[in-house]
Specification:
Helix content is 52%, strand content 23%. With 325 residues, the chain is α+β, with helices and mostly antiparallel strands. The protein has an 8-stranded antiparallel β-sheet with strand order 4-5-11-10-6-2-3-7. A 3-stranded antiparallel β-sheet has the order 1-12-13, with no helix packed on it. A two-stranded antiparallel sheet has the order 8-9. Belongs to the non-flavoprotein flavin reductase family.
C-alpha cells in the first residue's frame, strides 16, 4: 500500500468514526496536591458485576502516568451548558493545576479525584486495568461511587459540538414519561381496575391537565392536538379506528400540561380506559365526544384555563353517565 493509499484509508476511517455521535467527558485525577484533567469522548459503561467503566486516552497523554501513580480517576459526563469546560481540558497544556483548576469548579467524592461541579453525571473510580490499544490506552475503572443530575448532554458529532433540538428534547421527555405510564398502565390493567375507579381517577387528574394545557402548551402542540381531533372526527362510525384516537386526545392533554406527574398519571389510565371504552362506544357517543373534545380544544387555544377545566369535567360526567347506562 502506498503512502497516499494509507492516508486515504486513515481519512476515510476518521470520517466514518466521526459519524458516531458521542457524549463528552472530562477524565480527572489528583496526585500530591496537583489536579489533572483531559477531555475524552470514548467513554463506555462496561459491566454491572463488578461495576466497570472504560475510557480511551492517547498513549502519549501525561495524565496516564498520574493515573498510574494515584490509582484513581473520575469520569465526568458534561451537560450541554459545559462546552467551555470541555474546551478548557482539550487545549494544549490542559488540565494540570495545583490544588484547584483555575477555570472549572470541582469537588471530591470517594477517591479524591476531582468531580466537575454541574456535570450531567460522574463516576468516581479506582484503576482496575490499563490495556494497550494501538495508539491509545484503554483505561478500565471500578466504580466506587457515582451520581449526577438532570439536563441534556453535550454531544460531539462530525467534528463539532452538538445539542439536542427543542423537538428532540420534547420527544426524549415524552419517551421517559411514556415508559413510566406504560409500566403503571399495565399494572392497573392486570390489577383489574373497576370502571368507578377509572372514572374517579379521570375526574381527579384530567380537568387539571386540560387547565394546565391551556396555560403551558405551545402553538405547535395545540396545532397537533387540533389535527388529532379532526382525524378522530373522520372515524366516528368506526369504533376500532376512533377509540385509539380518542384515547390519544386524553393522553396528549396530559403531556401538554407540562407536569410530568400529571402526564404520567393520565397516560397510566390508557389501558383501563381502553378496556372500559371499547364496549360503550357507538357512532352517537363518538360524535358527542368529538364535540366535547373540540370545545376543550377551543378553550385551550383561547388560553382559558377555567373553561378548559370546566369543559373537561362536563365531558367526563357525560362519559360516566354513558358507562353507567
Amino acid at each position: 500500500m502506498t503512502a497516499d493509499e494509507e492516508q486515504r484509508r486513515i481519512d476515510s476511517f476518521r470520517q466514518a468514526a466521526g459519524r458516531f455521535a458521542s457524549g463528552v467527558t472530562v477524565v480527572t485525577t489528583a496526585l500530591d496536591g496537583h489536579l489533572y484533567g483531559i477531555t475524552a469522548t470514548s467513554f463506555v459503561s462496561l459491566s454491572l458485576n463488578p461495576l466497570l467503566v472504560t475510557v480511551s486516552i492517547n498513549v502519549h497523554s501525561p495524565i496516564l502516568d498520574e493515573i498510574r501513580a494515584s490509582g484513581v480517576f473520575a469520569i465526568n459526563v458534561l451537560g450541554r451548558h459545559q462546552q467551555q469546560v470541555s474546551a478548557c481540558f482539550a487545549r494544549r497544556g490542559r488540565g494540570r493545576s495545583k490544588e484547584r483548576f483555575d477555570e472549572v469548579e470541582t469537588r471530591t467524592e470517594a477517591t479524591g479525584a476531582p468531580v466537575v461541579t454541574g456535570a450531567l453525571s460522574w463516576f468516581d473510580c479506582t484503576v482496575h486495568t490499563m490495556l494497550g490499544g494501538g495508539d491509545h490506552i484503554i483505561l478500565v475503572g471500578e466504580v466506587v461511587s457515582a451520581g449526577g443530575g438532570t439536563g441534556q448532554p453535550l454531544l460531539y458529532w462530525s467534528g463539532e459540538y452538538r445539542e439536542l433540538s427543542v423537538e428532540e428534547e420534547d420527544r426524549a421527555v415524552e419517551a421517559d414519561i411514556g415508559r413510566i405510564s406504560d409500566s403503571l398502565s399495565v399494572q392497573l390493567h392486570l390489577h383489574g381496575m373497576r370502571t368507578e375507579q377509572l372514572l374517579e381517577a379521570q375526574h381527579a387528574v384530567e380537568p387539571a391537565a386540560a387547565a394546565l394545557a391551556a396555560r403551558e402548551a405551545t402553538d405547535a402542540q395545540v396545532a397537533q392536538l387540533r389535527a388529532l381531533v379532526e382525524e378522530s372526527e373522520k372515524h366516528v362510525q368506526d369504533a376500532g379506528r376512533y377509540n385509539p384516537l380518542s384515547l390519544e386526545f386524553h393522553a396528549r392533554l396530559g403531556l401538554l400540561s407540562g407536569n410530568p406527574a400529571i402526564a404520567a398519571s393520565v397516560g397510566a389510565l390508557n389501558r383501563p380506559r381502553e378496556s372500559a371504552y371499547a364496549v360503550h362506544t357507538n357512532a352517537e357517543r363518538a360524535t358527542r365526544a368529538v364535540g366535547a373534545h373540540r370545545r376543550i380544544l377551543e378553550a385551550i387555544e383561547g388560553r382559558d384555563e377555567t373553561a378548559a377545566r370546566r369543559l373537561m369535567t362536563e365531558h367526563l360526567g357525560v362519559v360516566a353517565q354513558g358507562m353507567h347506562c
